[in-house]
């Protein structure tokens, strides 16, 4: 499954001292015959992710699929 996310800088983690980001917007990408759709409501937008990999694992768990089945693309100019 293809997803596009727009990150928003979230500062540093008090636990790991690593840079984190929150997801501003999450969309299911257009693939096969699927229509793109905003699915931001499926995740906790206040959660501070440490990496796109962590977001991929959370999406896989939430959707009941393997992490290998999740593909992420970062959108917008808000790079982390």
Q: Could you characterize what this model shows?
A:
By secondary structure, the protein is α+β, with helices and mostly antiparallel strands. 15% of the residues lie in helices and 34% in strands. The protein contains 1 helix and 4 strands; from the N terminus they run βββαβ. It has one helix spanning 52-63, and strands at 2-12, 19-28, 37-38, 71-74. The chain has a 4-stranded mixed β-sheet with strand order 3-2-1-4, with no helix packed on it. A hairpin with an 8-residue loop joins strand 2 and strand 3 (37-38). The two termini are 23 Å apart.
For this entry, give a set of tags.
80 residues; 1 helix; globular; AsnC family transcriptional regulator
Radius of gyration: 13 Å
Instruction: Quote the average pLDDT.
Output: 85
The main sheet orders its strands as 3-2-1-4
Structure summary, number of beta strands: 4
Helix-strand blueprint:
Elements: E1 2-12, E2 19-28, E3 37-38, H1 52-63, E4 71-74
Parallel strand pairs: 1-4
Antiparallel strand pairs: 1-2, 2-3
Summarize this structure briefly.
The chain is an alpha+beta fold. It has one helix and four strands, in the order βββαβ.
């Amino acid at each position: 499954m293809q997803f596009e996310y727009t990150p928003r800088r979230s500062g540093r983690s008090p636990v790991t001292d690593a840079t984190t980001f929150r997801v501003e917007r999450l969309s299911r990408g257009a693939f096969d015959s699927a229509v793109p759709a905003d699915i931001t409501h499926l995740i906790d937008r206040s959660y501070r992710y440490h990496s796109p990999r962590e977001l991929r694992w959370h999406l896989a768990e939430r959707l009941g699929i393997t992490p290998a089945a999740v593909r992420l693309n970062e959108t917008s100019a808000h790079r982390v």
